[in-house]
Amino acid sequence: xxxxxxxxxxxxxxxxxxxxxxxxxxxxxxxxxxxxxxxxxxxxxxxxxxxxxxxxxxxxxxxxxxxxxxxxxxxxxxx
Amino acid sequence: xxxxxxxxxxxxxxxxxxxxxxxxxxxxxxxxxxxxxxxxxxxxxxxxxxxxxxxxxxxxxxxxxxxxxxxxxxxxxxxxxxxxxxxxxxxxxxxxxxxxxxxxxxxxxxxxxxxxxxxxxxxxxxxxxxxxxxxxxxxxxxxxxxxxxxxxxxx
Lengths: 79, 155
Description:
The complex is a heterodimer of chains A (79) and B (155). Chain A has 79 residues and is mainly alpha-helical. Chain A has five helices and one strand. The longest helix of chain A is centred in the N-terminal third of the chain and has 12 residues, at 18-29. Chain A is elongated. Residues 1-12 of chain A have low confidence and may be disordered. With 155 residues, chain B is an alpha+beta fold. Chain B contains seven helices and six strands. Chain B has helices at 6-19, 27-34, 51-63, 70-78, 104-109, 122-132, 135-154; strands at residues 23-25, 43-47, 82-85, 92-95, 112-114, 117-119. In chain B, helix 2 (27-34) packs antiparallel against helix 6. The longest helix of chain B has 20 residues, at 135-154. Chains A and B meet through helix 1, helix 3, helix 4, strand 1 and helix 5 of A and helix 2, helix 4, strand 3 and helix 7 of B.
């Protein structure tokens, strides 16, 4: 991942990779309604999706809960 | 419960407008509204924390199909930092204090309107993800920064 980030980080290179540029331009040609249909998906995420309601007093408490309860592969852990 | 659909975003916009809820789309759902081609599951809303806005929000959510208990409605009114709703027709995250953004007013003043939807400026969406620094954000940030550059160049 680190290699890919270095290659694609436009803060460093100042250029948009051509394959991303094509994707951005294709998306810009679509209506917002169509973009919604492609963008929002529904999958079951273990633990995260298993309660109807959660509220956290602080973002720190929420981040900590994610790290302590969610599988690592969901990607909610801080780096 | 299925995927978040365009008509449901319209329902949020209309119900929140009726109740006077001050909010912004944020996160990847906000970026998608701006044109970012990617996928996500949740609609993320940055909601202004104030007693008046909390009351308006708690009144609007049942109209959207969210089944709130009295205690849950109270927690929304009181403005917890983060509320995750999965008891309605779509997944909805309410963020009252996103990482990386100082105040709602500052984000509101920088907002972008997309077909009537108030959306955080891409700089704020990126700042929030940078501050959060989760693995999944780290992976999406380079492409999101490129999109921000593309989006600014088109305006």
